[in-house]
Amino acid sequence: MDALTLLLLSVSLAMDAFAVSVCGGMKLPADKKFIGGIRYGLWFGGFQALMPFLGYHLGCFFAVWADAYSHWIILAILSWIGIGMIREAGEEPDEKPDVKGITMLGLAVATSIDALGVGVGFAFDGIAIGPAVLEIGTMTFCISFLGCVFGAWIGMVGKKKAEQAGGIVLIAIGLKGVIAHFLGS
Fold it and tell me: Is the four-CA dihedral 13, 15, 19, 22 of positive or negative sign?
């Protein structure tokens, strides 16, 4: 795989993480956006690198399962988080927004599960997994960091509407996966 193709693949895999990072950044106060961006970047970048690595090593067996159910898993996780965002829109923020723990684990898995299939493809194509996962993880870290920082800025400008829109975006991302599955895209 040439460098440009790997770069484009890395950016495209990071887009869901970017959208979720923007939504998460909206809940952060301005003074917490940098550390929040680091946390989102580490969670999403780490999982975006881990999933192709696992897919590469688990091969075809797991790819069949992932293709068959990943769209439902993503829809469930993103809808749960999106509905929560819509319900909480306009509420006073917690002292410490949840940018760790089970919520971040769920978001990280949901945004990176498609990379599992990419890893299987790497195995079939004989692509060296080390450099590929390093680039995918690094690109996702950077894009997620910027998304969180940008989301915090959006949150200061129009918090309630931005949180509602963010919840709707998360649900739409989940629905997109289900629709694409049934349309064969």
Answer: positive
- Rounded CA-CA distance 54/35 in Å is 28
Burial 137-158 (b: 16+ CB within 10 A, else e): bbbbbbbbbbbbbbbbebbeee
* Cβ atoms of 33 and 25 closer than 8 Å: yes
- Give the CA distances from residue 166 to residues 85, 88, 163, in Å, rounded to whole numbers and listed in that order: 7, 11, 5
> For residue 33, how many other CB atoms are within 10 A of its CB?
20
Q: Average pLDDT, stretch 116-145?
A: 87
- Which residues, including other chains, have CB under 8 Å from residue 39's CB and lie 6 or more apart? 99, 100, 104, 148
| Model pTM score | 0.70
